[in-house]
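Contributing: when you submit paired examples, paste them exactly as shown. First protein:
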Amino acid sequence: MTANDFISARTLRRTIIKQLKDQQCLDSICSEKLRITISKHTRKILEMISHLLMGFAFENMNTIDRVAFEKIAHPSLSVENWFKLRKEEASSATEIARLGTLLRNAEAEYDRYAPLGFISGWFSNKVEDQKIEAAKSRRNLLRAQRESEENVHRSKVEAIQGHATLFLRNAMSKDGLRSLLNSSSISKQLQEALCQMTKEVTAVWSSHIRNQTDSLEKVRAATADLFGIYDREDVSDSTPLVRGKYASASN
């Protein structure tokens, strides 16, 4: 082994280390690409299922969607209860809008009778005081009614969100997706979305395999060359600088 062999061995080891670091970097890049790809298609599928769920209406829900709903939804949520909850939420939202209109009118009326607020009472007569108090009472009553209805509406929205979250979680499971693929009005679109996701994930993984294989071949070649340098029988003859008179002296 010459000094050049010694230097070559160090170079080969650096090559191996670099390739191993590159492989780790490739793993990280592949992992991120897979995460982005899967997340993108998962969002698309979730939106598809969400539109199906929120688009259900009692009068236009077909049999296959009803079957899919009953298989995926929590046992405590029937189709009828879901429709009832959606109807109550919509009715509550309409009532809030109605009360909001009445409240704005009541506030405008109070502002006409008391443009300076409570200070207006200092300069008003008895009749004017009665009008101010009546307008104030009506305004406060409508405020309380709207606030109460907003609480009702909030509870309905929270209930819908809770049921929807559970439905989506169940729908994204293996059994849930199978149910939607076998029996639902979005089976075709869902199949296309899943196929596209599989295609893109496969492309990312195939590219990663090629890159890793190329890197491993470089490691294999460098490792073979390194074995060729060190795998020698005569240690003294292959030891750097131990030659000539030094080798003879040791004998």
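Second protein:
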Amino acid sequence: MSDDVHELMRALHGDDYLKDPPDGGKVRQKDQPWKALGISRATWYRQNKPTCGSELDARYYYRQKNRAQADDRSIRTIQRRAFVERWGIPELSQLAVQDCLPPAMLEEIVAWWGFPEQQAFFNRLVELSVDAKKEFKPNDRFLKMFGSAMSEVLSTEESHLRRLARQAKQEIEVKQRAEPDADTETDRAA
């Protein structure tokens, strides 16, 4: 029986009917355009299904541009904040979001220092803020939202906080320069 069917099919379609299977569409092999763009499927949907990389990048730029206009800031400032929020410790991210320190300073700290140095910078900034105003009682709103250390920093006057941040940054940089010298001295002694 099956030989009869094959002969009938061969008579109707020629010899090529066994070489080309019937095209019933792609089964479980859907196109995955997000892989071509190098993004996840969720991001592809969030970006409204972009078809090319330039369309994706353009939308990201315009989101930054709209955010910059809404905050009355430059696009570069928004990019610096995003960098600090993504790669910095949470405390530095809060300083960037609350606009306490210049985004350029925070970006430089995050770009050049690892997490331990970033944490040391923030801890020193808190110490300097507390020492600058011993009699000060932190704002209750800041205390509830951010905790005692962050509330000390956020309640410091902006220009004074910038000076304290520069001082803390310089102290850590001096300490970093001194550490390699200590290592070489111990190597010489051994």
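If you have annotations for the second protein, write them as plain sentences, like these:
The CA atoms of residues 94 and 146 lie 9 Å apart.
Residues 89-190 form one domain.
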